[in-house]
């Protein structure tokens, strides 16, 4: 099976029932003449098409068409859009959530002194306090008691 087979197989039904445009028909028929697999498939499709066309057209029961058309009209109605009030409430809730998140992060950074990697980590106590004060006020580091 060549690359042309894959491209042809998607359009083989059009070739079988005669709806393939004239501009493309010659190239497809040349391929089918040279490719036994595609030739067999086209022959089967043409036989199926001929069989289906030979069958009598089915009769439509009375009352079916109005019922189908009613269903189509009902499903074709435009969908109702949400009320503007609902949209505004949702947008306000999202805005409040984001504001609260930012405020919480800001307060958290303010309480902890921000993200300052120069401060030593460890347990609270006199020594860690002295190191923090010495780092913050190096000019008074001699006066800070040990």
Gist of the model:
The protein has 146 residues and is mainly alpha-helical. It is 66% helix and 0% strand. The chain is elongated and about 110 Å long.
Q: Mind sketching the topology for me?
A:
Layout: H1 3-9, H2 12-17, H3 22-34, H4 36-54, H5 64-75, H6 84-112, H7 126-136
What does this structure look like?
This protein is mainly α. The chain is 66% helix and 0% strand. The chain has helices at residues 3-9, 12-17, 22-34, 36-54, 64-75, 84-112, 126-136. The radius of gyration is 40 Å and the shape is elongated. The protein starts with a helix and ends in a 10-residue tail after the last helix. The mean pLDDT is 77.
Uncertain segments are none
Summarize model confidence as the mean pLDDT.
Answer: 77
Q: Roughly how much helix do the residues carry, as a percent range?
A: 55-70%
H/E element order: HHHHHHH
Structural class: mainly alpha
- The N- to C-terminal Cα distance equals 87 Å
Q: Rounded to an integer, what's the Rg over CA atoms?
A: 40 Å
Q: What general form does the structure show?
A: elongated
- Provide the β-strand percentage band: under 5%
Sheet with most strands: none
Q: Helix tally?
A: 7
Find the count of extended strands (DSSP E, 2+ residues).
Answer: 0
């Amino acid at each position: 099976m060549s690359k042309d087979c894959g491209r042809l197989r998607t359009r083989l039904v059009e070739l079988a029932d005669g709806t393939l445009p004239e501009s493309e028909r010659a190239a497809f028929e040349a391929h089918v003449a040279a490719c036994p697999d595609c030739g067999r498939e086209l022959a089967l499709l043409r036989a199926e098409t001929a069989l289906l066309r030979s069958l009598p057209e089915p009769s439509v029961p009375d009352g079916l068409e109005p019922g189908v058309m009613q269903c189509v009209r009902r499903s074709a109605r435009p969908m109702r859009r949400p009320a503007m009030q609902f949209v505004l409430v949702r947008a306000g809730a999202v805005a409040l959530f984001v504001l609260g998140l930012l405020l919480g992060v800001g307060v958290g950074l303010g309480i902890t002194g921000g993200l300052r990697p120069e401060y030593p980590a460890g347990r609270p106590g006199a020594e860690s306090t002295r190191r923090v004060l010495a780092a913050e006020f190096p000019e008074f580091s001699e006066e800070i008691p040990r």
